[in-house]
Amino acid sequence: MDLRRLGAGEWIAALAGVGLLVSLFLPWYTAPRLTAWEALALTDVLLAVVAAGALAVLLITAAQRVPAVPLAADGLLTSAGLVAVVLVLVRLLWLPAEAGDRAAALWLGLAGALGIVVGGFLAMRDERLSKEGRTRDHTGRPAPPPPEVEPLPAPPREASS
Question: Could you tell me the residue range of the domain that residue 60 belongs to?
């Protein structure tokens, strides 16, 4: 596992996933105080899976040697994050029958879902271009600079007869 492979996108998505997961245990609605686990039927499980996926992408990116698998995981995470945003927006606009008003954790859940989308998008865009004077290999890890090229003299010309 190499943490140097992780970019800002993976960190943003993972932190947003933690925020979304924590919000599921806090009250989403007031009067009575209902958490997402109490107020939602299947949506809470789907949101927990998306939040866990955000954390998994962090681990996948750090563990893989080639960028293809993390890039595919980033794409799936971004798509799942968009679904999570829609699910939270539906619960924001249409309250459950027994719920009172919206609580702060609902807004935290929306911010977490949006953060997962932003983090996944940034992770997909990260091509790990090297800064001037700093080279990286195909995995994104720092690599030694290429060896200096030694110029060869031109071959002698043969006289044509």
Answer: 8-128
Strand ranges (E), 24-119: 27-29, 34-35
Give the C-alpha distances (Å, rounded to integers) separating 96 from 3, 25, 52, 91: 42, 17, 25, 8
Mark the ranges of the chain whose per-residue pLDDT is less than 50.
Answer: 129-130
User: According to DSSP H, which parts of 26-138 are helical?
Assistant: 36-39, 43-63, 68-93, 104-125
- Is 90 part of a structural domain of the chain? yes
Q: Tell if the pTM clears 0.85, that is, is over it.
A: no
Residue 139 lies in a domain: no
Per DSSP, the three-state class of 118 is helix
Residue 3 located in a structural domain? no
